[in-house]
Amino acid sequence: xxxxxxxxxxxxxxxxxxxxxxxxxxxxxxxxxxxxxxxxxxxxxxxxxxxxxxxxxxxxxxxxxxxxxxxxxxxxxxxxxxxxxxxxxxxxxxxxxxxxxxxxxxxxxxxxxxxxxxxxxxxxxxxxxxxxxxxxxxxxxxxxxxxxxxxxxxxxxxxxxxxxxxxxxxxxxxxxxxxxxxxxxxxxxxxxxxxxxxxxxxxxxxxxxxxxxxxxxxxxxxxxxxxxxxxxxxxxxxxxxxxxxxxxxxxxxxxxxxxxxxxxxxxxxxxxxxxxxxxxxxxxxxxxxxxxxxxxxxxxxxxxxxxxxxxxxxxxxxxxxxxxxxxxxxxxxxxxxxxxxxxxxxxxxxxxxxxxxxxxxxxxxxxxxxxxxxxxxxxxxxxxxxxxxxxxxxxxxxxxxxxxxxxxxxxxxxxxxxxxxxxxxxxxxxxxxxxxxxxxxxxxxxxxxxxxxxxxxxxxxxxxxxxxxxxxxxxxxxxxxxxxxxxxxxxxxxxxxxxxxxxxxxxxxxxxxxxxxxxxxxxxxxxxxxxxxxxxxxxxxxxxxxxxxxxxxxxxxxxxxxxxxxxxxxxxxxxxxxxxx
Length: 581
Ligand SMILES: Nc1ncnc2c1ncn2[C@@H]1O[C@H](COP(=O)(O)OP(=O)(O)OP(=O)(O)O)[C@@H](O)[C@H]1O
What we know:
CATH topology of the largest domain: ABC transporter transmembrane region fold
Largest sheet: 11 strands, mixed
Oligomer: single chain
Helix content: 55-70%
CATH architecture of the largest domain: Up-down Bundle
Radius of gyration: 35 Å
CATH class of the largest domain: Mainly Alpha
Bound molecules: adenosine-5'-triphosphate
CATH superfamily of the largest domain: ABC transporter type 1, transmembrane domain
Number of domains: 2
Shape: elongated
């Protein structure tokens, strides 16, 4: 019971924001229309049940005129039914896409809010495969919530509409057993209730493991898909390393999990289907068995029996709603759990950026240096990595940072960029200063070359002539004429070309602070030197901090900083300058 209550509370938490959002009037209007149509459909079912009585009596009495008028009546009612059914589906789908659009936009906004997506990864597997949660899960949630909610509403209304009818019919067709008449008020209602409660309890006993199995199925499917995408993204390396057998094996194992879980799903579904199918078939004849003795004892007409059977099956169907939707309910609960986990993952990532014991990135007045104040960098498990007490990168100065692999150079850049929360102390950045980080492999979005170069800016911010000029300056004249070409540039260009493109990006954006994390390491020394000269010439006021291992880089920096071990961690130390430009 507590489980049901907490699931419903979670559903309410996930579903209600849309109906209070800026799109609330459209959402509420569509929902109201869909509900109204559902109620009208229940009303039509009541009319059809009453029609059953008149129609079968007309047949039994061989009354041609009533037969014809009942056929016409049926056609008119059914025409309304068709109209309502069509519009219910249409409006339902309309509501689904609006709701889904709102949820997806909302999730995208939160996920891509200030590096939440990155912090979620840092926290481990709390919310695996966010892509699946924002696609399949949101779609299924919206679809199932509407289907199950409307189904429940329809069952309750059906129950209310048919209950009094069936109660009355119980008196008209009293219970006949072995030639004796028993007068039990509303016995048909009680029979429907007992029959349904039994069915519901048994369904739950057989079907409850489905929730967990469904959850795992969706997870394994997403995992398999994600690994396929990784192979596609790294296909060149896999081909060069002849890693296909290893990949095949990895994918086989991943898909093996899909199959294994699917078999568990099949077995459980088989059991539940065997039960629900028997239950549903038994439901067809059960009302006839109950009222047939009264019919054969000539207490009721054929029409009365048919109407009773129809009313009984409506009431029993409503009571047994849970049985009929058990499979969907299990799937829905798995989806609700997954979206709940996703929301919790985003909340935890965002809390990580707000908690007190984190690295604080603060804006300071003026346009001076980026300063590190009592900074301690830690790994996610709390292990100390690097200490930097009162250290600054002065305005306009070019600093080369060196140190052993794994010392924490890139992590220091992450902390300065404000995306590494683990540690203490502060990074002070001049208010409104522009920072740019360039890694070894710059990210180039799939699309036009113009978009890729100016990222994260927009193409219209930089006219084509300027982009072409910068591309030529960084040694990519052959790309200058291909600005409108669409491609997967990270795959198409050599690493050296990608690094040149990264420098072109920096020249266009002209940040006040430029952090180069081995951003030219794939180029030969003369090419690297040419790019550093270009940076010095075009961005004279920019503070440059480079991570690099080549001694030739020394010439282009005024200051050397090295990371040296000090006990269990590294510290930053100004090195004696060997050569200066
Ligand atoms: N997300 C993470 N989770 C756990 N440990 C991490 C994570 N990111 C980095 N580390 C660890 O932090 C340490 C510092 O990594 P970092 O990339 O900053 O080193 P680096 O000095 O830039 O090395 P290199 O010169 O090889 O690039 C490494 O031991 C690395 O394994």
